[in-house]
Structures are given as C-alpha cells and as structure tokens.
Amino acid sequence: MSSQSSSRTAKPTEDKINHLISKLQPLLPQLNQRPHGTVAAKELLKEACNYIRRLHGEIDDLSERISQLLNAIDTSDVDMDS
C-alpha cells in the first residue's frame, strides 16, 4: 500500500477531532450564548445538525417568498429588450 493511499484512510487523531470541534463551537449561535466553557462533542454535533436543519428551513421559506414576489410582478410592464 502506498503512503498516499494509507494517508487517505488513516483515522483522524483525537487531537485533530478536538481541534475541529473547537473551531465549530463559535459558529453555533445557541452555544455562544452560554457562559464560556467546554461543551461535550456529542452535544455540539447534535446542535450543529439542528442548526443546519433550521438554516435549510429558513432558506426554503425565503426561496418561497422570493418566488411569490417574482410571480406577483407584472412582467408585461418590464421591457425585456433593454
């Protein structure tokens, strides 16, 4: 096995995981409102998933509102040649 293929399949170290988790925590607004301290990785990852789901919901809602606004525009008044 080449060193390149073994490096792709190597498991991340605990230090690397902890580093990535520490970078994730400040990105989560719900966790930033808490007093400073460590959050269990399991709780942080669960909160990250919930936050991503909420963001997807907001995107869907905004997309729907934009679509409704665009449909409400009377395109006959818009000069498409300019």
Q: What structural category do the secondary elements indicate?
A: mainly alpha
Q: Rg to the nearest angstrom?
A: 22 Å
Helix content: 55-70%
Beta content comes to under 5%
Cα end-to-end separation = 62 Å
Would you list the SSEs in sequence order as H and E?
HHHH
* Main β-sheet description: none
Number of helices: 4
Count of beta strands: 0
Shape: elongated
What does the average pLDDT come to?
81
- The residue ranges in which pLDDT falls below 50 over 5 or more consecutive positions are none
Domain count: 1
Verbal overview:
With 82 residues, this protein is mainly α. It has one domain. Helices cover 66% and strands 0% of the residues. The protein contains four helices and no strands. The chain has helices at 3-9, 14-24, 29-32, 41-72.
